[in-house]
Q: What sequence folds into this?
């Protein structure tokens, strides 16, 4: 069974755990209506994706 030869330093532990921190989602603006939308998702407000209409959105 593998056993570590030396104790992991505090700095090494913090560097490893630092990669798991929370990051805010990156949002792009819709080219048609200008609302903020996550990438690779059709705009929920206007229904456009990649410059073309892909969803039918009902006007309320």
A:
């Amino acid at each position: 069974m593998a056993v570590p030869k030396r104790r992991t330093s505090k700095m090494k532990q913090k560097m490893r755990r630092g990669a798991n921190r929370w990051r805010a989602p990156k949002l792009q603006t819709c080219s048609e209506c200008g609302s903020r939308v996550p990438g690779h998702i059709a705009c929920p407000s206007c229904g456009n994706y990649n410059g073309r209409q892909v969803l039918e959105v009902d006007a309320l």
Summary: The CA atoms of residues 27 and 38 lie 5 Å apart. The radius of gyration is 22 Å.
